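sorry for the late reply, my laptop died twice this morning and i had to redo everyting from scratch. anyway the thing you sent over, i finally got around to it. pasting the sequence first so we're on the same page, its 177 residues, then the predicted structure underneath. double check i copied it right bc i was rushing
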Amino acid sequence: MVDPAMVTGAALGALGTLLANVKKARASAPPAGVDSAVWDMMLNSVEATAIQQGQIEQLTQSVNQLVIAMGGTPVGEDPFANTDKFTTGQLVCTTAGRGFQLDSIPIPKNKQLIVKAHPNNVGWIYLAIQQAQSQRLLISWILLPNEGVGLFLKNADAVWVQAPVVNDGVVYIVEQE
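ok and here's the structure:
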């Protein structure tokens, strides 16, 4: 990973060197065959380019910090790198028609909770964000056996599961950082 402080230092050093050379060039006469107005225009262009380069570096750093603050991947890191940490679970509905809450598992930013109806289920599974809603079949989310859904939540315990058939249930997984 590239160290932002190192990049900033290198950019500022290059900018300082360029500006120092422009000051020396302004103090001396234009090279032979170059009109003084053209020479001034060239030096102004070099100074403007150096200033713009510094502004671009500052903008790039600001955008990178914003991306990191929003849970994104900083420059130089692989956003698709494999993780070696994830949490799995299983919930079995031991009472037909009653909502059961998933375990409390914090979910990192930009990660999903994947909930899948167990492949051996006999009936459908109903998902909701409240126990009462999981028992109301017209407003809960239906999963057929072996069907799943990805949810962006802060915690897995926001999900309630209800099964009309005893011992049907769900399996779930959350990638961790």
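The mean pLDDT is 86.
thats about all i looked at so far, will dig more tmrw
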